[in-house]
Write a structure and sequence with these properties.
By secondary structure, this protein is an alpha/beta fold. The protein folds into two domains: 175 residues, 3-Layer(aba) Sandwich (Rossmann fold); 63 residues, Alpha-Beta Plaits. It contains eleven helices and 14 strands. The longest helix is centred in the middle third of the chain and has 18 residues. It starts with a strand and ends in an 8-residue tail after the last helix.
């Protein structure tokens, strides 16, 4: 595999009159975490299905691990692993038996297969639960088992389609740690889809924002944040009169009458913050709440799409 793990040019996919992906271009460097960010229905899972050869594109040139997905699908499948939105484990089998099943499917010889199973169960802290039915596993444990099964074939590119959906915050952070370790220790490439802005911010080297089948932005998390006007101070007042009076003091500010908040552009330096508060005080005004807000991926997505990721596309 070259220094580029995935390249996509002009990817289109439609079902009847519904265009799901409308001219997608992507470039994913090897050994990085790439996040495709978007709400439900944006086309994230369809993108993963095309890249992993599960469905065919209507148009476009797509290469994964140096192979054309249209003409070299077997070679692509040999280089990748896929973990879907829901853990694909057999709940009637134990954790160990699920791993054995994957080893058999990969055609790995007995002794080597046992070594791989033992190593992965230990790595994912599933040794104690290995002989228990997967039906007894928590959501986080199922996710870990699913990912361990994906690693049996030593894939160089791993597609993680919303891998932390439905997990509690602690299990989600455990998965984040595992994902980081896969890249840092094993040197794999991770293609991650998510609707969690914090997840993309925490994990991804690069982020592509997908909305209604189109890419609306790409870049590092910091580059995307710079698309939004800078840091601001948010003030909340007790009543509308105070809010209106404060707004006249800061011509560049914006108000939210329902929330009784004033948003004032600022560099967040101590001198400018002190000057802002002194100006309020000099005019007999006081805010009930005061906070400094820096742009995050929530702001980016809202600015680019006019919606939050909580709204289905």
């Amino acid at each position: 595999m070259t220094n580029t793990a995935i390249t996509v040019s002009g990817l289109r996919k439609a079902y009847g009159d519904k265009v799901v992906l409308d001219g997608i271009d992507l470039n994913v460097p090897a050994g990085t975490i790439f996040s495709l960010l978007g709400p439900n229905g944006a086309g994230k899972t369809t993108t993963v299905h095309v890249l992993s050869t599960l469905i065919t594109a209507d148009d476009g040139v797509i290469r994964v691990a140096g192979h054309d997905v249209a003409t070299e699908s077997r070679a692509v499948r040999g280089a990748i692993g896929v973990t879907g939105q829901f853990a694909a484990v057999d709940e009637l089998l134990t954790g160990y038996e699920n791993m054995e099943l994957m080893v058999d499917l990969k055609g790995i010889p007995g002794r080597e297969g046992k070594r791989i199973i033992a190593d992965l169960l230990e790595r994912f802290e599933l040794v104690e639960a290995a002989d228990k039915p997967a039906s007894t596993y928590s959501g986080g444990m199922r996710r870990k088992l699913d990912l361990a099964m994906t690693l049996v074939g030593n894939p160089r590119i791993i597609f993680l389609d919303e891998p932390t959906t439905g997990l509690d915050p602690r299990s989600r952070r455990t998965m984040w740690s595992i994902i980081r370790d896969l890249v840092a220790t094993d040197g794999v490439t991770i293609f991650l889809t998510t609707q969690y802005l914090e997840e993309a911010d925490q994990l991804a080297d690069r982020v592509a924002v997908l909305d209604q089948g189109r890419l609306v932005a790409q870049g590092t998390p910091d580059e995307l944040k710079r698309l939004i006007p800078g840091t601001h101070v948010r003030l909340r007042f007790a009543g509308a009169d105070q809010l209106d009076a404060a707004a006249t003091l800061f011509p560049d500010s914006t108000t939210d009458p329902e929330a009784l908040t004033l948003r004032v552009p600022s560099d967040a330096g101590t001198a400018s913050l002190r000057a802002l508060l002194d100006r309020l005080d000099a005019n007999g005004l006081a805010a009930d709440e005061f906070s400094v807000h820096t742009p995050d991926l929530d702001d980016v997505f809202l600015a680019l799409t006019g919606r939050t990721t909580e709204v289905s596309a």
